[in-house]
Amino acid sequence: MTNRGLRLIAGIALSLLVAAPVWAQETGAISGTVTDPDGAPLPGVAVTLDSTEVPSSTTYTQVNGVYRFPVLPPGSGYTLTFMLEGFKSVIQEEIPVRVGGNSQLNVSMELSTVEETVTVTGTTPIVDVKKTGTGNNLTEEYMQSIPSARDPWVMMQQTAGMQVSTENIGGSASGQQSGFSGTGNRGGDAIWNYDGAEITDMSALGASPMYYDFDAFSEISITTGGNDPSIQSGGIRVNFVTKRGGNTWRGSGRFYLTDSSLSTLNVGDPETGELVGGFSSDELFPGYIGNSISNIKDWGGDLGGPVVGDKVFVWGAYGKQDIKQFVGTSADDTQLTNWHGKANIHLGDRAVLNYTFIDAGKTKQGRGASASRQGPTTWNQGGVCCIHTFKGQYTVNDNNYVEGSYNDTALGFFLEPQGGRDTQTAYDLDTGAWGRSYFFYDTQRPLKNYRVDANSYMAGANIDHELKYGYSRREAGTSSIWAPAGGAVAVFDAGVPAEAWLYHLALDNYENARNSFYLGDTISAGRATVNVGLRYDDQASVSLPSAVDPHPLNPTLFPAQTFGGFDPNHSWSTVSPRFGLTYDLSGDAGTILRMNAARYYGQQFNGEFHVSNTTFGPEMDFNWNDANSNGFIDPGETFGDPIFTSAGFDPANPNAPIDLVFTDTKAPITDELILGFEHEINRTLGVGADFTYRKNHRENWTIRNGENNPALWTEVSQNISGFGTINVFEPVGTRPSQQIYANREGFNTQYKGVTFFLNKRFANKWMGNASFTYANPTIHYSTGGFTDPTNIPTRDGQSSTENTGSAKWFFKFSGMYQLPHGISVAGFFQARQGYIEQRNIRSNSRNFGAGRVELDAAQFGTFRHPNFWNLDLRAEKT
Fold it and tell me: What is the percentage of the chain residues whose pLDDT exceeds 70?
């Protein structure tokens, strides 16, 4: 048996020794205690649940008076009826259920000699006494009431503690993913879930593999901290739950239009090139006149209901976004098309079968358009579908539940430069502008998930245990090719031929598998709830064989290359502890203290061990003499020694194995501590605060062997035309070709931040959410944690923009108020510190093939864009 197999068995044995908190992939729970007038628990009370979402079901309170409905789809229309002979029946209406949440509903039943019923509405606490993490649950009612652009990244922007890189005005940015950051989370550890299936793109860690139909969602749950053991990493977790059919037919339709006639131009007119807004041409990137909306349409609908009452439910949806805009004078058009299908089959009272289908298609003309990339350098994009998820759920008895699921995500896309693959790419060092064409990219990224999850409840006289445990396996593959069009980049300096950047075709082919076990316990003892748990993960990646043809311009330099594959027989095996605690100071969910501590381990990139691949697309740069003055690199026009050569590539022996020292790395670590409190002012209004500390360390990197030794670098002065003298570092001698793959010691990022928040459930004609965050994310280097020392003095200990956001403070408020006559008004307001403006000075080429470096013009974070604020308003007549 291999070492990997032994570690896997050891992990299973270890995870069986311990126990985890309340959580769910796409469901929530209702639970509580039933007591008599003296506060003594009442066993044997019949508790019946009714809803349009699921068939009616009945459970009975246990010896401690506790009842549980542990697996319920999110919604706000649940009703519970409590009945026991000799007591007044109690009906509780309009009970909300949130994804991953527990609606605690305690009931006191009064004695009665006649048959009587008491009906109560909306009495569940707004505070979740079992929640130890941070984040937001965004309901369908909220998403449809609060004005915003219509994509999940905007919902992240409305989540306490989160920052998003792109301001999506009127839906103009819905055709492209936004960067985002939370409370110091590693960007590559973000996890995307869709109807219980983990769909994270493992080839672009932390990214979504697709785009979404906003009106298909029943709820979006966004977790920023305190991830439970069913979740691998400590990253942002975005969990989508789509609508479903119920016992009544329900449907909706919509059509939204945003047109250029409804907006103003703030920089220039894309049709005429005329500048507006008081700008002069020397204030702008050459030829760039800003972004503007041309026309945006968003339409679609959904319908769901019973095929067989209480037995078979179906739901389907179609959505289309047609986004047309200009970036400068370049058209940037996107079409997002989503088809959904869902079926839920109830086999008796205990078994449920579920199937979900998603076809999320994206086509785009002009992707990548920017100030430096116009027209032919932008991409046309297309892709493939689809996602299939099968799930079976079985309730063994009132105290035991199990479910199994299988998910197949077959996604991929291509990026085709509008200038064509045969037109040689151009770049100008002086302006930073690309020309003629650009890089092309084709990728296939299949993903499969297998899961088994179970829940067991054990009632005690004073202490209750809710055990949650499960196993999952994820298999992710990637096959990609990329290169610059024409195989090279013709580099100019102020229009004069300067350098030739030659690239061989890159071909990546690798796969990754993760096996995971988790086990935990939610321990309820009086006013305290303790969540303890462990998670075991074993992650392994292998590189598969690949081969590429000779380079079209220089087959001698870049002949045909072959790679036989690589299996390092090495995996990341980790045991992640989780601990959470809540304490109810008042005894009625009025004031809650909470704490969460965890050590997480990072997700493994599909190609984590792919550094040995010889078909990785090596690059060699030369000086260029355009002998025939045609502006294109032709054979025989490069001269001199290379000014840059990719690490690991030996031009004298292109098919030689990569000169690599492969070390047995370990998974990156995130340590987290969250302290918080939450106070319920009344059953609809709560306030609170959270303090978060997070440290990310033990990252992995691949560097030229020894170049993290400062002694191998020397400081030199350069004269920069139009600026003056700058000091940069360059190697002291010939750079080593050998690379080392290792853990990056001497480097970490840290986050300290506090968030104050207010939550108002809809009641008394209004609802709202507000938050204010002040944070200090920093990045830290010590000897051995960096290579080129040029910018270390200006970066060490300064603000970190690793995960996009760099505002130290930000405020958010959203709300809706109902006026008479069915009129309501709603708004979303945000204000934040301006993001860091990176001002750099580009150096000249440095000796020993070190290329150029962008020198910080001042201490990093010195320059910031102006403070930003945004206000969206909406009026509606129902």
Answer: 96
